[in-house]
Design a protein that fits this description.
By secondary structure, this protein is of the alpha/beta class. The protein has seven helices and eight strands; from the N terminus they run ααααββαβαβββαββ.
Length: 231
């Protein structure tokens, strides 16, 4: 989910782009950008990410995001079937299945908002991969919407091992995704490399960090950054 489905913020090798476009089902209209971008990412030999902006994005009130109809629900089914077919052809289905589920949920949230005017509550945030080395053991501190998003990212990517998941309100949450939410008091019993504070509010994050420092957890092992919203 760290790679958006938009075509406008990417440059492709001509031969790759042409081959991918020729494979796209002509009946795909909803999600047509994604039906090019994700297969291209899978087949590309290399990628380079530039963290600069050269494109000024303007919201269009007549776009799909603002003017959905009931027909879009059928379009979502067509799009999902197309992705499943192609991912299996590329022999990446086991890797991409959970990614596809997350993407389809995101598309459905747009359609539901456009048709019914209802906002779905699954707001995903990207795990701070750049701050955490791969294959290490992390403790997630926070089981709200940010914590759940981080867990989903880690579960999908298998990037790091979640040694424990804690929250001060663990009695109210208890489980998510088959994982038990524990009390922060177990930190002293768990082996870990980093504690990732999974909350959006900076003041709350500072309070949690202060509490962790009081428990003699080294500051260098405590990680928090403003969660990156990925829609």
């Amino acid at each position: 989910m760290g790679i958006t489905a938009a075509l406008w913020n990417k440059i492709f090798k001509k031969e790759l782009l042409k081959r991918i476009i020729e494979e796209v089902d002509n009946e795909i209209s909803l999600g047509d950008d994604a039906s090019v971008v994700y297969p291209a990412v899978i087949q590309a030999n290399s990628m380079y990410i530039i963290r600069r902006s050269w494109y000024h994005y303007i919201q269009n009130e007549d776009s799909m995001c603002h003017s959905c109809t009931f027909e879009e629900f059928a379009e979502v089914s067509l799009l999902k079937a197309e992705f499943e077919r192609r991912f299996k052809e590329y022999n990446v289905w086991d890797t991409m299945q959970l990614q596809l589920e997350r993407y389809i949920r995101g598309v459905m949230s747009i359609v539901v908002r456009g048709v019914y005017g209802i906002e779905l509550t699954n707001t995903p945030y990207l795990f701070p991969f750049e701050l955490i080395p791969a294959k290490c053991k992390v403790i997630l501190y926070g089981a709200g919407i940010v914590g759940k998003s981080y867990w989903d990212c880690l579960r999908t990517q298998k990037y790091a091992e979640v040694a424990a998941w804690v929250d001060g309100k663990h009695n109210k949450i208890e489980y998510y995704g088959g994982v038990r939410i524990e009390s922060p008091t177990i930190l002293a019993e768990v082996e870990f490399d980093f504690v990732v504070i999974a909350v959006f509010d900076q003041k709350l994050a500072e309070e949690i960090e202060e509490h962790l420092l009081e428990q003699k957890i080294p500051k260098k092992k405590i990680v928090w950054t403003t969660p990156e919203y990925i829609g």
